[in-house]
Amino acid sequence: MKLTSRSVSLVPIVATASAAALGAVLVVSAPASAATTLGAAAAQSGRYFGTAVAAGKLNDQTYVNILNTEFNMVTAENEMKWDATEPNRGQFTYSGGDRVLNQAVSNGKRVRGHALLWHQQEPGWAQRMEGSDLRQAMMNHVTQVATHYKGKIYAWDVVNEAFADGGSGGRRDSNLQRTGNDWIEAAFRAARAADPAAKLCYNDYNTDSINPKSTGIYNMVRDFKSRGVPIDCVGFQAHLTNTAPSDYQANLQRFANLGVEVQITELDISGSNQANAYGAVTRACMAVRACAGITVWGIRDTDSWRTGQNPLLFTGSGAKKAAYNSVLDALNAGGTGPTTTTTTTSNDPGPGGCTASVSLNQWDGGFVATVKVTAGSRALNGWRVTTTLSNGTVTSSWSSNRSGTSGTVTFTNVDYNGAVPAGQSTEFGFQGTGSGSGLNPTCAAT
Ligand code: G3I
């Protein structure tokens, strides 16, 4: 049996006796020594540090230098939105989005997709639509854009800002909402079908504390989880003034406890207490295992949508601000890392066989496992993955058919991911309560 290992971080490496017996390598990420860039500092705990990028600024050398040095995740600030990608019904243009994505990918960064459906920046033709015709156009938009970027997006903001401000805790009125309350789950299902590998997020603002709006979203996520609607993450935009709410971390944690990843997606903070507030937000993310990373909404103060408020980490001329040092120090101080473990088993597929590896995100009381199925030297027409789950219970799974919830659990391909070319991979996932430790997936061709 040939032993292979893939890992996200190599410090420290822990291989248990039983894992070794299965031909598995277990890698646990942990903070290392102080790093000198935001991306590298975040990566020490398995997190990312990202920024919004505007395609029109990719010719600005100061901008690009900071982007390439400091960040390892990118969000297109406007270029993947509905008005940009489908200016006329059924006519898709991806030039701006592709430009941002290609610059990121060719410099080793990952990309968050933003945003498939949002009541703002709808193209004019969609603004004038209602009812079932609009619903059809919405779902087609989700499917087309997620398909165009299939396999290239770390996480999509599938739906953006659908909840109302104020005390109602309910949905915001919009032509999207008026197509029926189920539009959000329909969008998530369409996005999952189009790009099963992307994490699917709900993203909103004014959700930085435990308040009626964030609680409305919390209730939706809990409902989606209980009914198997495919949602993987919640984005907290975090457009803040002077301070982070005292219950910022507690709010992130309550969402994490539902079994979703939490991401800080559009961070910017104005005011004289800016540096402290940036530190507080960063420490809160570091203290929540399921907080996967932070994205700031622009690079230099002059790049910000908050004109004149100077809410970012770099001055207009590209110098690091005190807020930058606060963030870097908080990232370097470490924290409760998402316990990301990568286990590889079944290492000698032989002709016609396959391997399975699992990446596990574990937090107090729950986990998400992402399993990669890789074909051997011959293409697969179908596959079956079997694993033991000793101390946990599967509550939902995606991109596979499942048999069992604990003990021995078996997953088989669904229609669209059974055919895997030689040497290529496909992914499925599952989540559960309890512990996902000790997963030992083995793969067989069917
Ligand atoms: O590109 C055109 C330009 O050709 C034209 O001359 C100019 C005239 O106004 O407009 C330019 O487009 C502007 C675009 O930004 C690019 O600069 C739009 O008018 C302007 O509305 C748009 O603003 C964006 C805003 O979303 C739209 O609501 C901001 O850049 C962007 O930072 C902001 O981002 C949002 C997130 O997507 C969701 N959360 C809130 C966040 C801040 O509002």
UniProtKB/TrEMBL annotation:
Keyword Hydrolase: yes
Enzymatic class: hydrolase
One BP annotation, GO: xylan catabolic process
Coiled coil: none
Signal peptide region: 1-34
UniProt KW Hydrolase keyword: yes
Reaction catalysed by this enzyme: Endohydrolysis of (1->4)-beta-D-xylosidic linkages in xylans
Active site: E266 (nucleophile)
Residue ranges of domain CBM2 in the record: 347-446
Family indicated by similarity: Belongs to the glycosyl hydrolase 10 (cellulase F) family.
Protein name from the UniProt record: Beta-xylanase
Biological source species: Lentzea albida
